[in-house]
Amino acid sequence: MKKILLDEMYSGLKEYFELFGWEAITVSEVGLQGAKDRDIVLYAKKNDFILVTQDQRMADMAEIIQAKYVLVSSGLIAKIVDEKIREKYPETRDFSGK
Predict the structure, then answer these.
(1) What is the mean pLDDT of each run of 10 residues along the chain (98 residues)?
(2) Distance between CA 23 and CA 74 in Å, rounded?
(3) Helix, strand or coil, per DSSP, at residue 23
(4) What DSSP state is assigned to residue 92?
(5) Which helix (H) or strand (E) holds 26?
(6) Model's pTM, two decimal places?
(7) Cα–Cα distance between 97 and 29 in angstroms, integer?
(8) DSSP 3-state of 50
Protein backbone atom coordinates (compact mmCIF):
# COMPACT_ATOMS: atom_id res chain seq x y z
CA MET A 1 0.00 0.00 0.00
CA LYS A 2 1.31 3.45 -0.89
CA LYS A 3 1.81 5.83 2.01
CA ILE A 4 1.00 9.53 2.06
CA LEU A 5 1.91 12.11 4.67
CA LEU A 6 -0.70 14.85 4.95
CA ASP A 7 0.53 18.31 5.87
CA GLU A 8 -1.44 20.09 8.59
CA MET A 9 -3.93 21.80 6.26
CA TYR A 10 -5.02 18.39 4.89
CA SER A 11 -5.31 16.38 8.12
CA GLY A 12 -9.11 16.50 7.84
CA LEU A 13 -8.91 14.53 4.58
CA LYS A 14 -7.24 11.47 6.11
CA GLU A 15 -10.34 9.26 6.15
CA TYR A 16 -11.17 10.15 2.54
CA PHE A 17 -7.72 9.07 1.38
CA GLU A 18 -8.07 5.85 3.37
CA LEU A 19 -11.32 5.13 1.51
CA PHE A 20 -9.30 5.42 -1.72
CA GLY A 21 -6.89 2.79 -0.38
CA TRP A 22 -4.04 5.01 0.80
CA GLU A 23 -2.21 4.56 4.07
CA ALA A 24 -2.68 8.16 5.16
CA ILE A 25 -0.78 9.61 8.10
CA THR A 26 -0.92 13.21 9.31
CA VAL A 27 2.05 15.26 10.46
CA SER A 28 0.50 15.51 13.92
CA GLU A 29 0.26 11.71 14.17
CA VAL A 30 4.01 11.44 13.70
CA GLY A 31 4.77 14.23 16.18
CA LEU A 32 5.57 16.92 13.60
CA GLN A 33 2.71 19.36 14.15
CA GLY A 34 4.20 22.86 14.09
CA ALA A 35 7.58 21.47 12.99
CA LYS A 36 9.88 23.18 10.52
CA ASP A 37 9.13 22.46 6.87
CA ARG A 38 12.57 20.91 6.48
CA ASP A 39 11.90 18.37 9.24
CA ILE A 40 8.60 17.30 7.67
CA VAL A 41 10.17 16.90 4.23
CA LEU A 42 13.08 14.90 5.64
CA TYR A 43 10.67 12.65 7.55
CA ALA A 44 8.63 12.02 4.40
CA LYS A 45 11.74 11.09 2.41
CA LYS A 46 13.26 8.90 5.13
CA ASN A 47 10.00 6.96 5.57
CA ASP A 48 9.10 6.76 1.85
CA PHE A 49 5.93 8.84 2.13
CA ILE A 50 4.43 10.95 -0.63
CA LEU A 51 4.01 14.36 0.99
CA VAL A 52 0.72 16.15 0.24
CA THR A 53 0.97 19.88 0.86
CA GLN A 54 -0.25 23.29 -0.22
CA ASP A 55 3.00 24.90 0.94
CA GLN A 56 5.17 25.97 -2.01
CA ARG A 57 8.26 26.26 0.17
CA MET A 58 7.84 22.72 1.43
CA ALA A 59 7.36 21.48 -2.14
CA ASP A 60 10.54 23.31 -3.19
CA MET A 61 12.47 21.61 -0.39
CA ALA A 62 11.08 18.21 -1.39
CA GLU A 63 12.16 18.87 -4.97
CA ILE A 64 15.69 19.76 -3.85
CA ILE A 65 16.19 16.54 -1.88
CA GLN A 66 14.18 14.46 -4.37
CA ALA A 67 11.47 13.51 -1.90
CA LYS A 68 8.10 12.45 -3.28
CA TYR A 69 5.45 15.15 -3.01
CA VAL A 70 2.26 16.59 -4.47
CA LEU A 71 1.72 20.34 -4.36
CA VAL A 72 -1.98 21.17 -4.23
CA SER A 73 -1.91 24.76 -5.44
CA SER A 74 -4.78 27.23 -5.39
CA GLY A 75 -4.75 27.09 -9.20
CA LEU A 76 -5.19 23.32 -9.14
CA ILE A 77 -8.10 23.60 -6.71
CA ALA A 78 -9.75 26.25 -8.89
CA LYS A 79 -9.32 24.06 -11.99
CA ILE A 80 -10.93 21.06 -10.28
CA VAL A 81 -13.84 23.16 -8.99
CA ASP A 82 -14.35 24.69 -12.44
CA GLU A 83 -14.46 21.23 -14.05
CA LYS A 84 -16.96 19.97 -11.47
CA ILE A 85 -19.22 23.00 -11.90
CA ARG A 86 -19.23 22.62 -15.68
CA GLU A 87 -19.85 18.86 -15.35
CA LYS A 88 -22.75 19.30 -12.92
CA TYR A 89 -24.26 22.33 -14.67
CA PRO A 90 -23.70 21.78 -18.42
CA GLU A 91 -25.37 25.08 -19.28
CA THR A 92 -22.25 26.82 -17.91
CA ARG A 93 -19.91 25.15 -20.43
CA ASP A 94 -20.17 28.06 -22.84
CA PHE A 95 -19.48 30.67 -20.18
CA SER A 96 -17.32 33.36 -21.77
CA GLY A 97 -16.49 35.25 -18.59
CA LYS A 98 -18.42 38.34 -19.66
Answers:
(1) 93 96 97 97 98 97 98 94 92 64
(2) 25
(3) strand
(4) G
(5) strand 23-26
(6) 0.84
(7) 44
(8) strand
